[in-house]
Automatic annotation (TrEMBL):
Organism (species): Trypanosoma brucei equiperdum
GO molecular function, one term: RNA binding
Residues in Helicase C-terminal domain copies: 469-641
Pfam families, sorted: DEAD, Helicase_C
Top-level taxon: Eukaryota
InterPro entries per the UniProt record, alphabetical: DEAD/DEAH_box_helicase_dom (IPR011545), Helicase_ATP-bd (IPR014001), Helicase_C-like (IPR001650), P-loop_NTPase (IPR027417)
Domain Helicase ATP-binding: 258-420
Region span, Disordered: 1-124, 138-183
Protein name: ATP-dependent RNA helicase
Skewed-composition ranges (Basic and acidic residues): 158-183
Low complexity compositional bias, start-end: 21-43, 51-62
Amino acid sequence: MGKKTRDGPKGGVGNAIKEMSTTTVTTTTTTSGEGKWTSSEGGNLLTWLSQVAPQQQKQNQQSRGAIDYLNKANARKNAKASKSSAGRPPAAETTSTKPEVPKPRSLQQPQQQKDQDNAGTNAVEKLAALFPEKQVKEAPAPNAKVGNPIAARVGAEGPKRNEKERRNETVRAQRHRGEREVKKERLQRRLEMMKEAQKFHEEALRTDPEYQKRFQTFQELQAAQQVAHSTFLDRYAKQGSLNINTIVSERIDIPVILNLIDQHDVVFICTDTGSGKSTSVPKALLELSNDTRVVSTQPRRTATVSIATRVAELRREAVGEDVGYWIRGDKCGDVQTRLWYMTSYTLLLHLLNTPLRPPFTHIVLDEFHERQPDIEVTVALLRLCLLRRTAQFKLILMSATLDTEGWEAYFAGLKVATYKQSEPKHLIHDYFMEDVCTLVGTMYDEPPNIVQRGVEYPLMEKHTAIAQALLLYLNTCTDPQHAILVFLPGRGQVEQMHMWLELNLRKPVDIIPWHSAVDLSVIQEAIKRRGHNRQKIYLATDIAEVSITLPDVVFVIDMVLVKRPKVNKENPATVLHPPLMTQWVSKGNIAQRRGRIGRVQQGFYFCLLSAEAVAALPEHMHPPIENSRIDELSLHCLQLVSNPVAIFSICHGQPLLETIATAMDTLCNLGCILHRKDPLAVGECISEIHTNSEWSPLVLEEAKNVVFADIDEYEYTFVGRLLQLIPVSPLPGMLVLYGFFTGLESLTILAAAVTSSLSPFAPNQPEKKRRWRHDVAGAMEETENSMREMCCGMRSDILAVMKAVLLFRVQFAKSGEDVTAAKMWCAQHHLSYDKLRSILDLEQHIKYELANFIPVRDVPDATVLLNQLEKAAAVMLVMTNVAFVSQALEVVSEGNTYQKTKETAVGIFMDVVAVPDIHSPSCLRWQEGEIIVPVQLSLMGNKMLASFSTAISSHKQFWLSLLLLTHKVMYAVFADDEGEFYVFSVKYYSTERYLETDAATGSAILQFRQMLSSVGQALRLLRDYQHLYDDEFADVLNDHGLKPLRDMQCEVVTAMAAFFNNTENITVDEVEHEEDDLDEVSMISLALPKRG
């Protein structure tokens, strides 16, 4: 490459390894053009990131979806303000193809270079001289051949051997002689091939100019690889010994920061990752006085608990005293705690309960650059409080990478200050893709405009191969005490790389996967674990960008990729289910990942993207709120304002118009909200005082400053409040509501926890990973057989997991809560112990949140609950189908092994085509004509992958369940020559389906829905009078003309059983109905009845 290199000092770890690493590696590299950065020239990656690419003149504008949504009715404005995404051409294959060049014997045998100069000696004669044949005193039998018996000679004075021993010796001699002959022939052929290759090489050098040019390039590239290798070892020779107890000293000026906070309303703190801001700033604020109350947020639960623990250790106190943490489902602290570390979502929920007056003197939003959707809303509310002076607090926004200019304009009218300091504590050596290829001897030609083209599978395969080559190199040439951190796009790539490393690395390693499903304790134990002969390799997703320090990490390998949801406005399926797409990260993410090293010792950062391509990356990723479903967030916003769109319109980053429309449609269909002008809304509003009575006027007034259209207002219903309290999304939350209708709340709460979590069934348990590595199909079949044994006779993955959870509870209790025994039981049934525990934790969290809202009839005995599940399996099947009916699919073709076709289904309420996810175990197989209701849908290409499903073979049962439990249906009664009949319409995602029933069935359906309304009214009374005893509450129900709640719930279950046990006498058919004449409404109303 012609790079300039500098000889480093001799001695140390690097030189010791350098003496052992003398193997020449065939290599190629990319020459740097003018103005390009190279690691050998001492450049700094952060300086390079500050450059703007020549082609990067225009960045995609942020979504203003909320404003567009509200201005839609205005005729003077355009209906859509977002431009469509241009189609992108597929990435072209540009891998260079070179003919194989025979390797010269001079390079293959460097230690014999001097001997080859002798004209009279060839390679075969030298080899014979090195390995002379042994001389045998006595010649073998004249006609002895391999396979023919040879007479054994026995000395006259030796002991007489039996015939069997002589035969064994004869066989061994024949076998040894045969192996020696085969090896000799193989060696002879190899030498002959080497001779031919050498002859071809010499002839081509004399006669072929093109070959001469390629060979000269080959030699130059080999020399460049040797220079890069030498430079790396010189740098690595300066690596100091690791002290795991080293504490990162504060490199930020705390007095200056405290002074800025005191004099301003909003302060931005922008420093390098590892500067100590996450621990030192909140700790310093806490120690200002005894009256300060500080909250500091983190985007992830892992970092929240870890940093709170670290700060408590620095103060030499236990977590939960002055310093505590508060995450959804787990709280460590009390009213005396003055410094809270929370997840950002927990802080938002806290603000909902304390309108306009947050109970904190200082609010710190850390890792602010990630800008999760809940953070957008939180900042909008805090900004509103500061502008209207409803509370006195200081807002501190901290990040390693943040575009403060745009945010300073957002906070116009407030005193804003920015603190910036980027002083690296230790040297970091930066390597781009061209430098990595030179170092490891890998040929790679980067496609032009790689960033604009996007990420395709062939390209990711090539980058993965380069990362693997680099891991092999580092594992061979570095000290085991220096750990490696690899940033991979997603969990799937983490698991694949894990398996590859186990099979291919030469030296022993300690591999630590790190993704969202890995518990924090696993990472903390790995950090403390010391293995002097086992090099630690962290395989992580972008979750490792957060503030947890990895003191033993010296090398960071960054694939510059991430998997995040991506909405394509031209594809409605992506709006309903934003697919996880592999994307290039931003320059801000690169700076975060680079900051993982250099904290306690010098480090090496390997960026698997060229310097030119890195310069073309965007400064920051698009706000996640633009590519996320916001149903649950909208539901929480309704606690503040009568229209969640109003609050989105005053956020710095806004969701897409299509996403907002989908969220509002979903909440209306579920009965969470009703338009204030809707006559059916009378009485549906909950009786408790709305917290939005203070927030709503301020939010609406602020929204009208940016929106030039009327803002509709909605009523927040009892159902909406119930679903808002549950720590799951609205669809699983509907299961809890159905449980209250039927008296099966213990089972439906478990079902909500199950459908909100990943399936615990997995074919590759750690104990059996090596056994099944080459038999994936067999492992999957065993797992699915285990699921079929637990599905209660139904074709439902949800019921299988529910029974598995209950059996796990029974087994855990029988073993005396022995974790080892429980894990062995899980391994036998192909279950994940950690996922089962997380399901149980979420179940308890749901019960805890509900306990303060409405009494829950809990069944603590797992054995009793198991029996209840077996008896009520059919009812549970119906309720899970209706909860996720918006995702229902109809199978149009079955898979055929011989024709290599897959099962295919089409959406009933969505315009999608779906196939089963073969990587997810299931107890059912799709059959043509049946209906599949999946819990999980993910987009892969132009098809949906469906998993965690329930199958219904009867269309009549499917449509009947919808008519019984859907919140709102339209209907009308018609008559013809055969008599009266009913026509109903059911609507989800703006798609209507029309169903025709006979008169008796239609009347029975309406009566059943009225029965559910009575149960709902009793539930509202139970919420209002939960302090009364049972007999007193029975009197209240009687005053309202209602039966005892338990009796009504039993009648509901009995009626449902009667419907589905007599389907042969029921008519429910899907029909076409074009006229708009269904003017009657049947809604499961929870409006309180008048007293009798």
